[in-house]
Amino acid sequence: MPAFSARGIVVRASSLLLAFERIALMGLMYLLTALILVNVVTRYSHFPIYWIDESAVYCVVWLTFIGASAMTRLRLDFAVTMMTERLSARHRKLAKIIATGMVVVFGVALVITCFLWMDPIGLARAGFDARKLAAETFNFLYTERTQTLNWPTWVLYLTLPIFAVSMTIHGLANLLEDLELVPRTPLKGFQLSELDGVN
Amino acid sequence: MITSAAFIAIMLVGVPIGLCLCLAGLVFIIASGNPVLFQSYPLQLFGGVDSYGLIAIPLFILIGEIMNGGGITRRIVDMAMAFVGSLKGGLAYVNILANMFISSILGSATAQVAIMAQIMVPEMEKKGYDKTFAAGLTAYGGMLGPIIPPSVMFVVYSVLAQVSVSDMLIAGIVPGVILTTMFCIAIALMGYVYNYPKADYQTPRQRLATILRTSPTLLIPIVIVGSILGGLGNATESAAVGAVAAALVGKFWTKEFRFSQLPQMMLRAGVYSAIVLFLVAAAAVFSWVLVFGKVPQETAAWIQSVAKDPVSFMLLCNVILLVIGTVIDGIPGLIMTVPILLPVATEIYHIDPRQFGVVVVINLVLGLLSPPVGLCFFVAAAVTGAKPGKMFMVTLPLFGISCILLVLLSLYPSLSLVLIK
Amino acid sequence: QAKEFRLGLITPNGHSWNKAALKLGDDLKAATNGRLTMTVFHSGQLGNEPAMMQQLQSGALDMGFIQAAELGSRVPHIAAINAPYIVRSTPSVAKFVRHPAAIKLFEVLPQETGTIGLGWGITGMRAIFSSKDLTTLADIKGMKLRINPTPVYRDFYSSLGAAPTPIPTPQVFDAMANGQVDGLEADLEFSWNQRFDKVSKVILQMNAVFMPMAAIVSGRVWQSLPAADRELITKTVKSTLDTQIDELAGNEPKLIENFKNAPIPIRQVPAGDTEAVIAEFDKVWLPKAPVLAELRKVGATL
Ligand code: NA
Ligand code: NA
């Protein structure tokens, strides 16, 4: 398989993304723990920091979607296996391909809904003027700010289009593996055990 | 109709449940002929996890990771052994008691079964217990995990139900203790019938030494449960402080925790919490489309026509949830049923949402211990090599006891609410 | 033609805003012989207020009862209605929100938020529930105070020397019982339902701020409605909100009586203390929302 083939690019992009996601997940967990501990200390010393709760919440939101993307590639998730485990090997493989295909379908659909929602073309047409876009299309996304951090909300919402794209790429990489068009890539840096459940 | 058909079809093919919920949401929007909803779709996904209560979940999972790396589990088992080891069926009591202590540190049933089965089952086998019984008993011990605080399931429930996370966690304490006691009574009876072996005799001096040596590990449950119950902080803060306590005990008392392990622990906690949290986000989208399609309202009308009073409603819920629990795992089950059943429970039958939460969660946890998708049995089987189906049969008395507890909890709200201020 | 409206709001069943929403649906149905109907989505079933705003803007949701805090965080001009000491009693609030000056605030909504404002509903004047003794504004200094995190309130309570702490609504009772905060500010109706008096030592009626709600309609939906329907809806919303306002203001004496029967004291802030606070607040907010000057003038006449 030539390194620059479309398949190769997808698998490599997916591995690269996963490496980023790994670092981001660790970083967000450290950040979250630190934020909550700082909150405890500052509140008990009568200097509560106003924006900490909101930061911690957005930290968890980013953790969710970055982690959800990573777990797609790691093939970790709750799925109902009641029917598939009773199928013959050939049919089971087919079911697997359909299931992985659905990941790609969802990824693409989410890219589309993000496109409708964030309307990058409309924004460019409005000369990147948030108020002009709002006046023309009733889309006020780029004029909003968060309540206590006072950040533009669209910056925080970016996790969704990122998730949509990375999930599509991971889904494609998984699909290529399931179709046996590429060999299974060992995924580095995640020492996860199938036994560690999350209930 | 189209939505639920699509949902069931892709779920059976093995599409992850979170994605099934998301995809069903998209199908609904297409079927409703209201494409303007597509624009709101990503924001609903975001809004599903944009909630303060959920912050506790990554922290609870982190505590489990740190505790496991710090050799704390083993010491808790030793302590339970020093207390009850020399009774008839001693190791069976040790199993349940150690599970109860560990429940007060871990937020998850399956994680707890995975950890405890590795320690308890070989030990029990050595002493002459049947392996299947040992593994099955450990799986039931793990059931205490999401009932005694901390509990990821209760956190998810309290976010869905918009009740205080701390209240919800506290509500699990009394039912958890009752269940432990009932399990112990059952073991006493079963031990008599099946003639369970005794454990090694320990002199009082040996016992005292063990208890003294292991008691600092109790600091962690004391910090977690104590700060929630005593009101020093909210559930999220107690989780963060509990993580620090676990790291300190692991570092300076058991000396098995190394800070170089921390990045991997953070990573695992991050991935596992994302699995839960993404389900919550997906459920938000799904319940949003359901609400738009007025499904909860129609279900409520149907239930009202079947159940005439709160008691029959609660019993009906028990049956529905037990059936759902047998095919669907705990958190997805919670996410799919609470948005529909809870409004009916509180608005029509005036049931306390916290009592309802206790019943729903225990119901779904019991589902983890019943075929065909009994996740806890599968975990115990994977660790020990015992057969899941046989495990269910030998532990049938424990299943019966759990059902009795559910009926009691459905009939007497005070069992759940007594410790809440 | 026939139309089924969807109305979303954040408050739970039983709240006076929810009763108003249900009444609005009934009245519309009655007035049109069932041609116009309405489904009410309460308790944030369709998402929190930012999510509802987005659905109003896209036209997925037809109407909303949205708190001034949410609109004010988008438009400082609207935030002016949350400013302290515009009026000083719930009966004055009831008059103020129906004054043309308050209604005129809605003029910026279409351009700034893509929605149409039809009228205000209210909650009563907010009070501080405190676990330490309070008699004057000066006593608030150094308190950890749970507030509604709208920028106006933050500035106001900070200027009193409190450390504002945003805590999500379901956790407020706990936070107070646990001593995570020394006090909280809320309206009396909500406080009675939550029984904040059980975790407090004293209630201080601030008579400073109130949190009204705006009945708004999606701009997109509004454009699509025939003029006659618009007129009918406007009229019906107005009369529904009139009822809500009058009932809420009328119920306040009874609420205060309830709190007076609780074993903790309920006190009023001495009126003289407020001039410096107003001056400091207006220094920051008049440049952001010049309309505040007019609102104060109107408020003083009520
Ligand atoms: Na637990
Ligand atoms: Na099951």
Notes on the structure:
Chain B: This is TRAP transporter large permease protein. Chain B: The complex comprises the extracytoplasmic solute receptor protein and the two transmembrane proteins. Chain B: One of its GO terms (molecular function) is transmembrane transporter activity. The complex is a heterotrimer of chains A (199), B (421) and C (302). With 199 residues, chain A is mostly helical. Chain A is built from seven helices and no strands. In chain A, helix 1 packs antiparallel against helix 2 (52-74), helix 2 (52-74) packs parallel to helix 7 (159-178) and helix 3 (89-118) packs antiparallel against helix 7. In chain A, 41% of the residues are buried. By secondary structure, chain B is mainly alpha-helical. Chain B contains 23 helices and no strands. In chain B, helix 6 runs antiparallel to helix 7 and helix 18 packs antiparallel against helix 19 (353-367). Chain B has one domain. With 302 residues, chain C is of the alpha/beta class. Helices cover 47% and strands 20% of the residues of chain C. Chain C is built from 14 helices and eleven strands. In chain C, strand 6, helix 8 and strand 7 form a beta-alpha-beta unit. In chain C, helix 1 runs antiparallel to helix 12 (227-261), helix 5 (90-96) packs antiparallel against helix 12 and helix 8 (151-159) packs antiparallel against helix 13 (275-288). Chain C is globular. One sodium ion is lined by residues 103-104, 106-107, 145, 148-151 of chain B.
Put the structure in a nutshell.
The complex is a heterotrimer of chains A (199), B (421) and C (302). Chain B is mainly alpha-helical. Helices cover 76% and strands 0% of the residues of chain B.
Question: Which key features would you list for this structure?
Answer:
heterotrimer; A: 199 residues; mainly alpha; globular; C: 302 residues; alpha/beta; six-stranded mixed sheet; five-stranded mixed sheet; 14 helices; 47% helix; binds sodium ion
Q: What is the topology?
A:
The complex is a heterotrimer of chains A (199), B (421) and C (302).
Chain A: H1 6-44, H2 52-74, H3 89-118, H4 120-125, H5 130-137, H6 153-157, H7 159-178
Helix pairs in contact in A: 1-2, 1-7, 2-7, 3-7
Chain B: H1 2-13, H2 17-32, H3 41-49, H4 56-69, H5 72-84, H6 90-103, H7 109-126, H8 131-143, H9 152-161, H10 165-171, H11 173-194, H12 204-214, H13 219-229, H14 235-252, H15 262-292, H16 295-306, H17 310-327, H18 330-348, H19 353-367, H20 375-384, H21 388-394, H22 396-411, H23 414-417
Helix pairs in contact in B: 1-2, 2-15, 3-15, 4-14, 4-15, 5-6, 5-12, 6-7, 6-8, 6-11, 7-8, 7-20, 8-20, 8-21, 9-18, 9-19, 11-22, 13-14, 15-18, 16-18, 17-18, 17-19, 17-22, 18-19, 19-22, 20-21
Chain C: E1 3-9, H1 16-31, E2 36-41, H2 49-58, E3 63-67, H3 68-74, H4 76-79, H5 90-96, H6 100-104, H7 109-113, E4 115-121, E5 125-130, E6 144-146, H8 151-159, E7 163-165, H9 172-177, E8 183-187, H10 188-194, E9 202-210, E10 213-218, H11 219-224, H12 227-261, E11 266-268, H13 275-288, H14 291-301
The structure holds sodium ion (2 copies).
